[in-house]
Specification:
By secondary structure, the protein is an alpha+beta fold. It is built from 13 helices and four strands. Helix 2 (25-34) runs parallel beside helix 4 (53-66) and helix 6 (86-98) runs parallel beside helix 8 (118-126). The mean pLDDT is 82.
């Protein structure tokens, strides 16, 4: 009999635990006390739909206490089933309501489903944050390089959080604006004297268009003087011109050497031809003697003419005599 009683009590406890799990009565009492109207049937159906009732009820209590009228049970359930963070969304809605920022429930859930932290975005909209840009190098018109660092104060733009560009786009646009403003300066001294001119030019470009932020201010934190890019470019151009001139001179020298070698080859060829021709003269004279075309007197006359020619050449080109020691 006692065993049967124990079994009955155990079964009753199991049934009670299962009943309280699927029908969270205490949670329903907490909601009723807080002023949230929700039925036990709806809490039971949440268990069937695999939606945690305590999260939904806690969010509804928080929204009700903050005076949010557009936060409903169906909306919270739908956002949870879609993979959203209902606690973060409700926290963001409460913060936006206290800060007098218009943020509808649909926009908050869309921002959350887009992958952005909607609560952090609301906090950034209330308290602007500062983004430090990496060092940006630019060259003024006088050829001097300047390295600038800027601090960008931004505020989250709630209306453009969905589909708007992030911090990387802001940094890229600010860097581009700094390069453009420094590059348009006539001298690097003008930039060093008035660094706020960079901020004014960059802000006038409307760099926050299409982004999830609103740029409040751009402050130049530091400017350093870098290399003399203009002088370096001139040196590089001079070295290039020198190399070109040296290459052309080497080409002309090689052509001159080749021409000299060609002339020497022609001279040697001519000398060989003359020697060969002179070697043929005795043969021709001997042949003339045999054929009777050349007489002895003709031969002597030719020798006299040759001797006379040698004498005239010696007179025309006298060779200096070496002195005796």
């Amino acid at each position: 009999m006692e065993i049967f009683t124990i079994v009955i009590i155990a079964l009753a406890l199991v049934v009670l635990v299962i009943f309280l799990y699927y029908v969270p009565f205490l949670l329903w009492v907490s909601a009723q006390v807080s002023g949230v109207r929700i039925s036990l049937v709806q809490l039971f159906l949440m268990r069937i739909r695999k939606v945690p009732p305590h999260k939904i009820v806690d969010c509804m209590i928080e929204a009700h206490k903050a005076g949010l009228k557009d936060v409903t049970r169906d909306g919270l359930e739908a956002h949870y089933l879609a993979g959203g963070h209902i606690e973060r969304v409700v926290h963001a809605l409460v913060s936006a309501n206290k800060a007098k920022i218009a943020l509808p429930f649909e926009d908050a859930t869309a921002i959350d489903l887009a992958g952005r932290d909607v609560f952090e975005a609301v906090q950034m909209s209330v308290n602007p944050c500062v983004i430090d840009t990496p060092p940006v190098a630019a060259v003024a018109k006088d050829g001097i390089q300047l390295i600038a660092k800027a601090r960008v104060t931004v505020r989250a733009n709630i209306a453009h959080l969905v589909g708007g560009a992030g911090e990387d786009t802001i940094l890229a646009r600010v860097g581009e604006g700094i390069v453009s403003s420094i590059g348009s300066a006539a001298s690097h001294k003008d930039v060093l004297e008035n660094p706020d001119s960079i901020s004014k030019l960059v802000l006038a470009k409307g760099l926050d268009a299409g982004t999830a932020f609103q740029i409040l201010s751009i402050d130049i934190a530091d400017i350093d003087v870098g290399k003399n890019i203009g002088a370096q470019l001139q040196m590089d151009q001079s070295n290039a011109d020198k190399n070109i001139a040296q290459a052309k001179a080497e080409e002309r020298r090689a052509m001159a050497v080749a021409l000299e070698q060609e002339m020497k080859a022609k001279e040697q060829e001519m000398r060989a031809y003359v020697v060969q021709s002179e070697a043929e003269v005795p043969k021709a004279m001997a042949e003339a003697f045999r054929n009777g075309n050349l007489g002895i007197m003709d031969y002597y006359r030719m020798k006299n003419i040759e001797a006379d020619t040698n004498m005239r050449e010696a007179i025309a080109n006298p060779q200096p005599k070496s002195g005796k020691k």
